Amino acid sequence: MKFGISFFPTVGPADKDAYRHYAECLALVELAEELGYDHVKAVEHYFFEYGGYSPDPVTFLAAAAARTSRIRLVTGAVLPAFTHPIKLAAKLAMLDNISGGRLDAGFGRAFLPDEFAWFEVPIDESRSRFDEGVEACRRLWAEEDVEWRGTYHRFGPVTLLPRPFRQPHPPILVAAALTPSSCEAAGRNGYGLMLVPAINPREKVQDMLGLYRKAWADAGHEPGADVVHLSYNAYLAEDADEAFAGGDACSLRMNHAMRDAVAAWGRTRSDNYVGYENIVKKIAQHDFAGALADNRLLVGTPEQVTGQLRAIRDWFGDVTISLQVITGNPSYEDAVRTVRLFGEQVAPHFAD
């Protein structure tokens, strides 16, 4: 198993200013590099406390690249529906070169109705814009004299500069939430898959991974080369009661931030997001104890979290784990403790 840190902020100016937030996160990046973590990851969201301090993961990861030499840099994820593919492909290729080929390019569809409204993009175009954006970026990276005649963009022939450091292109991952067909498409195309197990029952996550891995094999991709990233909120302490109290507080804060961000699903329906209208109801049913019992959070002492991860490995295989250590707005000191305890006392159990 591999481990990394995912920066999903749930914070606003009333908590801390953006300068302090980025300074603390970049210090955590340096600590993660020192402790041997595999990757750092950054999300893309807007305006809400739910991710709003991370509107451009490429900018953050470029700063992370300047402070590190080894750790991989993952966009988790950029949203092609809101960016022209030439602009997006060029930004990511630039980051790939700045970092010496350490970029893993993760793409997502976006799922917040308000974000689509603010960008004046119809939410019913989500799937088609995502598919077109990812494929246009892939071709711009891998080919020269690209001529694109899509539904939403028409350009070329053009040859992108800079060319990616990694050839023919950086590793591509796609994010999925509730839609099994997204997992199948990722496997069929030979892309990595990013999931958040906290929002689905274990059996559904296993089914989605089964679909992904079957599609990967059926498409003839290299056996065992599939890549799965699973993101978990994480809070560790030497004392179990302290860990559970802190983890519960962070979980509740995350719940409140997400509740505000998804509120528009109470009045929005889209064939591109079947069942998403139920998110509002699910968010209102905050159940920290239940999530912890189901191993949908990584909370506890190093020994307890090691046990959780052994169960997760049994369920899902040797996946890559992304620890959301700032989600829920813990103190900087608590986030450092989580990163250090996990890196020093948990990760070594899975080094093989």
Automatic annotation (TrEMBL):
Domain Luciferase-like: 1-316
Record InterPro entries: Bact_Lucif_Oxidored, Luciferase-like_dom, Luciferase-like_sf
Record-linked SUPFAM superfamilies: Bacterial luciferase-like
Pfam short name (any one): Bac_luciferase
Amino-acid biosynthesis is among the record's keywords: no
Keywords associated with the record: Monooxygenase, Oxidoreductase
UniProt KW Transferase keyword: no
Protein name: LLM class flavin-dependent oxidoreductase
